[in-house]
Known about the structure:
heterodimer, A: mainly alpha, 20 helices, 2 strands, globular, B: mainly alpha, Four Helix Bundle (Hemerythrin (Met), subunit A), flat
Amino acid sequence: MNFSLTYLELAVVALALGLLLLELWTPTALKPKLGYVAAAGLALILGWSFADTIPSESATAFSQMYVRDGLALFFKRFFLMAAILVLIMSVEFSDRIRMGVGEFYVLILFALTGMMFASSANDLIMVFVSLELITISFYVLVSFQRSRMGSLEAGVKYLIMGALSSAFLIFGIALVFGSAGTTNFDGLLQVTKGAADDKVLWLGLLLVLAGLGFKIAAFPFQMWAPDVYQGAPTPVTAFLAVGSKAAGIVLLLRVFLGAVPPVTGQWTKLLMVMAAITILYGNLCAIPQRNLKRLLGYSSIANAGYLLLGLSVLNASGCSAMLYYLAGYLFTLAAAFTVICLVARESDDISSLAGLSQRSPLLAACLTLAMVSLGGIPPLAGFFGKFLLLKSIIEQGPVNPGYYCLAGTALFGVVVSLYYYFGVIRAIYLSKEAPDLTPITVSVPARLSLGVCVIGMFYLGLFPQTALLVAQEAVSALKF
Amino acid sequence: MNALDYFFYLFAGLTLLCGLMVVVNPFSRNPVTSAMFLVLMMVSLSGLYVTLHAFFLAAVQILVYAGAVMVLFLFVIMLLDLKEEEHRKIKLATLFLGALSVGSIAFILVKLLGNARLVSDAPSAEGSTIELGLKLFRQYTLPFEIVSLLLLVAMMGAILLSKKEIK
């Protein structure tokens, strides 16, 4: 039993518990600054993760519950980066949290722990436990602003939908265990190689797909996303949109491409239909939205659809495109939500962006870049991610003509999305009536995190080779 | 009949009696009394588990059901005002429908039991406390430890979301 493999998770847990204690002895006025302590600690852990090379062979620990390979390491760095950006955002947000600021940061760290364990899951039990750790932390985080009705409403909705999705997941796991006799991914691979058409196994895996579908907000499990995104505190929305979704994605990869590929091979049609409807639903419903966070909620549904494109082709190029897309999505969304956090103090309506170009040219530029990247316009990260995903499905076109239809749907979605993303940019630069023109001061850490996001967006868009190589190395752990 | 059989009939009889007292107590219509009889029923049920050698299940039955769940029940009963319930008249139609549904379920049960073949030597009970402990602390150590984090988060969440706001 080599538990030293889990050193990154242990470091995060130690940081979280240390922070919980430190919070006791911190004067109330200084408590918001604890977020910087947490972010700095995570930055150290992120640096530490680069100290060791990507393992070529996967190593398992805890009787094959936990696996450490390239894919796990990629996602661990991804989650650490996301949590650092979210923590800096939370410090900017802390004046709107009445009490328990310290616990707010600690809960973010615990959710991060769950995500990191999820990226290393090699057993359905681990999938369930790590997802529960993420979800329960989010129940509390979403309803953290108890004095705001919206936050409470979002909390209740997330609690009910989260419990429902957990029920789906655990019922599915029980059926899989009942028919395959094991919950371990290596064992499941052996079983499904022998008999991939056991109907009980299929039903179980379908329910697991439903449970994970809730987490990434894919059709038909997307209905909670807009309401919860709108009501939750802004940093929590950002972490839900990036972290929770990526955790769902890594688990989809682990279960459906790592453990039961023979079954998934017969499900391509299902995945294609799911991807297409998710893209259409997200993009078409986003058009009439006037609330920024709700708009980004629908946009995140559409993005779940784009990510599913990469899953539906079931090959290495599709999966590396997914990882690349997620990396771009992280920087883009973090930039967008940091700006929303700083600007939209009273309401999240798009009209609150009026006059932003005069109030703070820096924030206006960052939000514009984020919207352009989300829309998929070169030379930013979003463009290259979408390009890679489309390329991977069009390459599969000769095998199954359905992929051409899927590519057409995705392109249509991209065109539609340009309309509402540019609506946001129009509000920044062209709206006539600006009620409030007081300049917005941006703190140094917030500037830094925005800088990192912008550099990330440009770097991924202009020099895709390096990042793509990293993604390909990470995916090679899945053994196609 | 050996000693174990006597215990079986003792606990089975107690379970049935207490179960009946939960719903048709002739002496009192106080919901709290019903809840207390429910506790007694749970305890005698766990006695039945002991006669089946499922010791862990028996312990969990008492800890979780008789302990935690019933406390929750009692809290809910005491928070709701149930005075009206004590004076409610039983309608004839309700009585008839109730008897009908109970009768049909009993009919199915009797029919099924009549056709069932009872195996004389049941397989020895799996899932003893030792086995469970070994599994939990060897194969499932990591999920078990993560659950401890989960409980910490749940505890923090419950305190944070219910605490009075300090001005």
